[in-house]
Specification:
33% helix, five-stranded mixed sheet, alpha/beta
């Protein structure tokens, strides 16, 4: 049974061939490269998974307030009023966040490629936002921004000659549970 934990989210990857925490110096060993949280290998594909959990109750209230202020400064949305209640949801598709996720994605891909650990399987990059509900519009906009940040379409939108990512997704908890029932997530009590 392979159980991995990130923040207060517990992932059950028992159905996978293997799953491991990638952003660990004991696992990764190349400090100059950014890392996604988990690598999950399946029979027909490999997932690179980045987890962001703004609802993690282990984050002290004061720190959560500081995070909201930081997101407010970085928010790139125009013509929208961002109240504190909506700030975390809207910040998901902040371009700066997508660039940061894209860097983790590309560096993790490069690491796997250079270590010959891709097993010639298609790769999927998933960013999981640890919230129950985010609108489809927000998730779709975030996914488009992430695809741009990862250069998924290749030069001049002509694709890549070598194997790159088959798909890139930004999901919330409920969409994860719907799309990946073989890998359930539960929130741990604090």
């Amino acid at each position: 049974m392979t159980i991995l934990v990130e923040g207060s989210l517990e992932f059950d990857f028992s159905a996978a061939i293997r799953a491991y925490k990638f952003d660990d110096p004991k696992t990764h060993g190349a400090g100059a490269l950014k890392q996604v949280d988990f690598i999950v290998e399946w029979e027909k594909e490999i997932w690179l998974l980045e987890v962001k959990d703004p609802e993690d109750s282990a984050i002290p209230a004061q720190q959560r307030a500081a995070i909201r202020r930081k997101h407010r400064r970085n928010l790139q949305l125009k013509n929208m009023q961002a109240t504190d209640a909506h700030l975390q949801k809207l910040a998901v598709y902040d371009e700066k966040l997508m660039v940061a996720y894209g860097e983790k994605d590309r560096d993790s891909f490069l690491y796997l490629y250079l270590r010959d650990q891709m097993q010639h399987k298609p790769l999927k990059f998933i960013v999981l936002i640890g919230m129950e509900r985010l609108s489809t519009r927000i998730l779709e906009t975030a996914t488009k921004g992430l695809k741009r940040s990862c250069a998924l379409e290749g030069p001049f939108k002509g694709g890549w000659v070598r194997l790159y990512f088959q798909s890139i997704q930004v999901l919330n908890l409920s969409e994860w549970q719907d799309q990946y029932p073989q890998s359930p997530i539960k929130r741990l009590p604090t």
